[in-house]
Amino acid sequence: MNNTLSVFNEIVTELIQDEKANPISEHIPVDDLYKTIDLSLDESPISEIEFKKTLKSLVLKSTKTASNAYFNQLFGGRNDKAVLGDLLSVVLNNSMYTYKAAGPQIGVEKVIIDKVCEIIGWDENSNGTIAPGGSMTNFMAMLMARDAKNNRAPFEGIQHDMIVYTSKDSHYSIPKNAAFSGIGRDNVRYISVDGEGKMNTEELNNTIEEDIKNGLCPTMVYATAGTTVLGVFDNVLTISEICKKHNVWFHVDGAYCGSVIFSSKYKFLIEGLENVDSFSFNAHKMIGTPLTCSLILVKDKKHLYDSFSNDASYLYQTDHDDFNLGKTSLQCGRRNDALKFWTLWKSVGTKGLEEIVDKQFELADVARNYVRNNSDYTLYSFDNSISICFNYKGISAREICTLLYENTKLLVGYGSFNEQEFIRLITINVQNNEEDILNFFKTLEKFVDDNKSLFL
Q1: 102 and 47 part of one domain
Q2: Strand 162-167 to 127-131 pairing
Q3: DSSP string, 354-394
Q4: 197 and 50 housed in the same domain
């Protein structure tokens, strides 16, 4: 083990040094991957020297998601205290379904859940769990909504035409989850959005009322706290009133930006959250813990037990049901994704989490102001978002992003809204500063200027 730890320290040290010198790994075309790195699995073992050499090559050629030139996805950066927690969870190798298997680590997850529920404004009847990703937390919310509408559904299957409502700019997991849950993709209603990408609440109300008239069964509404492309927030307060009027389960998908609950300055973006039935957010996005750390919270914990609890005498052999987390989880075996969030939270405090969230908006303001004050740019996104969507000199966003990637300059993606495609810059890495944001634009501009022939 000591030798293995030495190899780990050596490779990580070299990776961190290489990130500073080469923030973007050299692009390897898919056709050249297996010729560039020896990924083969053979009958016989290789020597320790060759093993270390191959492993180092793999690590250094992988995408550097913590570098100051990575703006591509809804996660990025590296917090050392969170990484420490993740490494310790790997070494401990606890499974989080029973207290016998995880011991005090169960308490780690429970205090996180309890504190988040308190921040939302819920009482002791609330609860939650941690799942592997936002798609899974959305799925769990749909199962709870289904079973809350018809408590025989887990036993007899769906007997009615249950309907789910969401905006046309919501996460792609929702129709998949409708298929998985038995509700069906065709029973998802996509509500239009306004000019800023927020769900049209009047249309939502009218659509629910029309479905009721037609004998259908409105079951749940998904709102989004941080849409994937524009990073905008649906009107939680108004939607909660509509859901209460029609007795429809209300879930807020905050996978991207739900962590604004930790910010006194920006929590107004999800005003009314205390009125929802369930809420989810990814601590591996705005909070910056390593992948994955997704929380699903529910106002009334009975729904977790109703939808996910199942007796297993070979597994649950103590009487402390509140500490046997397998009874409120979709999974049985489950890695400890709580410890990395706890080590971060414990080290910086709730005020530190607030500073992490606020800094992302500050960096976004730097980027937005740069775009607004430069006539070569066109801005497509809005204030109070950490997604900055723009085009440069009318050049194809897809073309710029692809060429920046293939030429090892920047990692940034593109998106679209109202049939307009644009570059989407994400300011989620709080290890970045104003200089890094401005350098992004300088790098883009220089690349375009130096390669004019590529953009004719």
Answers
A1: no
A2: unpaired
A3: HHHHHHHHHHHHHHHHHHHT-TTEEE-S-SS-SEEEEEETT
A4: no
Q: What is the dihedral of CA 5, 63, 441, 431, to 10 degrees?
A: -30
CB atoms within 10 A of CB 248: 24
Q: How far apart are CA 276 and CA 241, in angstroms?
A: 10
Taking the C-alpha atoms of residue 15 and residue 59, their distance in angstroms, rounded to an integer, is 7
Among the three residues 64, 94, 109, which one is the final residue of a domain in this structure?
A: 64
Asked if residue 105 and residue 10 are part of one domain, the reply reads no
Burial 199-221 (b: 16+ CB within 10 A, else e): bbbebbbebbeebeeeebbbbbb
pLDDT of residue 455: 86
Residue 450 lies in a domain: no
Q: Are residue 207 and residue 129 in the same domain, yes or no?
A: yes
CATH code of the domain in which 234 resides:
3.40.640.10
pLDDT given at position 313: 60
218 and 326 inside one domain: yes
Alpha-helical (H) ranges within 167-227 are 173-181, 201-213
Let me know how long the chain is: 456
Bridge partner list, 387: 426
Quick one: pLDDT band at residue 321, thresholds 50, 70, 90? Answer: confident
**Contacts (Cβ under 8 Å, ≥6 apart) of 99:** 106, 318, 320, 323, 324
**pLDDT (tens digit per residue) in 95-147:** 999 899 999 999 999 999 999 999 999 999 999 999 999 999 999 999 999 99
Q: Is 408 left (phi over 0), alpha (psi -120 to 50) or beta?
A: left
Query: CA 234, CA 323: separation in Å to the nearest integer?
Result: 35
Percent of the chain with pLDDT over 70: 98
Is the confidence at residue 349, as pLDDT, over 90? Answer: yes
pLDDT at 317 over 80: no
Cα end-to-end distance, the chain, whole Å: 56
Identify the three-state secondary structure at position 194: coil
Asked if the structure places residue 364 within a domain, the reply is no
Of 343, 369, 389, the domain-final residue: 343
